[in-house]
Amino acid sequence: MTINTELSGKYSQLREVIERIPSLAVAFSGGVDSSLLLAVAVQVRGRRVVALTADSPIHPARETRAAIETGSLLKVHHILVRTDEMDQSAFLANPPDRCYICKKIIFKRLMAAAAALGIEHVAHGVNLDDLSDYRPGLRAAVEMQVISPLVDAGLSKADIRLLARDLGLPNWNRPAMACLASRIPYDTELSCSLLARVEAAENMLEDLGFRGGRVRCHGNTARIELATGEDMARALSDACRKRLVQGIKAAGFAYVALDLEGYRQGSLNDPLARRGDK
């Protein structure tokens, strides 16, 4: 490997963690974290590894297709598991602990799918950096004994990207993604039509070449968060601005706003901190 000694040690530690697990199901979103975990698990455990991808309207279709492509590249047994978050009233209410409710539902389905295959352990791709963010879903993982090998190996997001690049994973530098529900302010009721509107708007952003952006939904207003100042400058050029407005209105929004702070992970958590819920 071409990585430094410290990171090489973490990689070895990750392999050792996985070696202690007789068989493993990886909760596989297709993002770089779970892709690295899956790739190393396949290296270590081969056919005793299965990838399980939650499939529901909260996950962008493009992300699901990307997960399928990566699973095929890794030649792993890959199963799409239909999950029913959108049938659960507690989830649809979109409270501040929505992620906890969601992960409980998802992990229950994934664990059942794993058990049907005779696999006892389910792992997810949480990393060290995730532990410092507001992520109620991590509590669900702990409660349900979903293991976190990347954390056990001491891997940060930057470490994971470097290892993924070294292992030749095509998504090593892919922007972080999250479920579509994370674009909706807490306590705004969720619906499939609302999520589809956000998904269409974000697809349009990606098609225009904006990587890692978000479209936050505030009623009939789309608040666009872009990743860089260069992206903002391009978005405000006459030609691009017109295409943005046209595309986002076509997705179902009446108004289009550009957030001058740009992309912030979990920006809809900010009100929770101000009112003391975070």
Q: Can you give a write-up of this model?
A:
This protein has 278 residues and is of the alpha/beta class. The chain is built from twelve helices and seven strands. It is globular. The model has no long low-confidence stretch (mean pLDDT 95).
Structure, briefly:
The chain is α/β, with parallel strands linked by helices and 278 residues long. It has 12 helices and 7 strands.
By DSSP, the count of extended strands is 7
Poorly predicted ranges: none
State Rg: 19 Å
* Euclidean distance between termini CA atoms: 40 Å
What structural class do you assign from the helix and strand content? alpha/beta
Determine the strand fraction and express it as a percent band: 5-15%
Number of helices: 12
Biggest sheet record: 4 strands, parallel
**Largest beta sheet: what is the strand line-up?**
3-2-1-4
What is the 3D form?
globular
Helix content: 40-55%
Order of helices and strands: HEHEHEHHEHHHHEEHHEH
Q: Taking all residues together, what is the mean pLDDT?
A: 95
Give short descriptive properties of this protein:
278 residues, alpha/beta, four-stranded parallel beta sheet, three-stranded mixed beta sheet, 7 strands, 46% helix, 12% strand, globular
Chain-wise SSE layout:
Blueprint: H1 5-19, E1 24-27, H2 32-45, E2 49-55, H3 61-73, E3 77-82, H4 89-92, H5 98-116, E4 121-123, H6 137-143, H7 149-152, H8 157-166, H9 192-207, E5 214-218, E6 221-225, H10 229-235, H11 238-250, E7 255-258, H12 270-275
Parallel strand pairs: 1-2, 1-4, 2-3, 6-7
Antiparallel strand pairs: 5-6
Helix pairs in contact: 1-2, 2-8, 5-6, 9-11
